[in-house]
Specification:
The chain is an alpha+beta fold. The chain has a single domain, classed as SMI1/KNR4-like. The chain is built from six helices and eight strands. The strands form three sheets. It has a four-stranded antiparallel beta sheet. A hairpin with a 2-residue loop joins strand 7 and strand 8.
Length: 199
């Protein structure tokens, strides 16, 4: 089973199930890199997806209705069973750090809110202004990749007020971050402007 062209991936249940299966196979053996930042641990697997009641409670806690792509994602997978590992640039480092890579509910709710608030503060916009329509809501899906809650449901890489395009949709973003071979395969020529965040 292969994913094919990353630029044609949609956010359907079938596509996300395929990503889940291929990523778990990919993580069975991980070659760690001597870099700073959190890497997926070898043998990581996705936690089971959420049911409709859990999704409803998740939305209620966040304060925004999820777009279909995010609902589909969380129906299939809800974070990983192991946290990401940070060797801090040295694979022989005995003082490794751990932090979730993909966020799960309810375990990572506080972290999700912290990431959202960090981006809002650094970009001088409040939740109230977002609710009034000044900008679409943002939601972290992996590290500092954020899904945009508008009609296009694109993904930005947002680190404070450093914001760049990342992927045309959630499935493409996940594949780009998981599989090294897809990192530079994304085509962003048709990326749509995003109100307030990237106009």
């Amino acid at each position: 089973m292969e994913l094919g062209n990353i630029n044609t991936l949609d956010t359907s249940i079938a596509t996300l199930e395929k990503i889940k299966e291929l990523s778990e196979a990919y993580w069975k053996q991980v070659e760690y890199q001597e870099v700073y930042g959190y890497q997926v641990q070898e043998g990581s697997k996705w936690k089971p997806g959420l049911n409709e009641m859990e999704l409803f409670l998740f939305e209620k806690e966040v304060g925004f209705k999820f777009p279909l792509s995010l609902r589909n994602f969380y129906r299939i997978m809800n974070g990983l069973d192991k946290p990401g590992i940070n060797f801090q640039g040295d694979l022989n480092n005995t003082k490794t750090e751990f932090r979730p890579k993909f966020y799960s509910f309810p375990d990572d709710l506080a972290l999700i809110n912290d990431y959202i608030n960090w981006i809002l503060e650094d970009n001088k916009i409040s939740q109230e202004e977002i609710k009034s329509g000044k900008a679409p809501f943002i939601f972290p899906i992996y590290g500092h990749r954020f899904l945009i809650f508008d009609q296009n449901e694109q993904v930005l890489s947002m680190y404070g007020n450093d914001i760049i395009t990342w992927a045309g949709n959630l499935a493409q973003a996940i594949v780009r971050d998981i599989f090294d071979s897809y990192l530079h395969s994304i085509d962003l020529t048709n990326f749509k402007p995003i109100k307030y965040w990237l106009e």
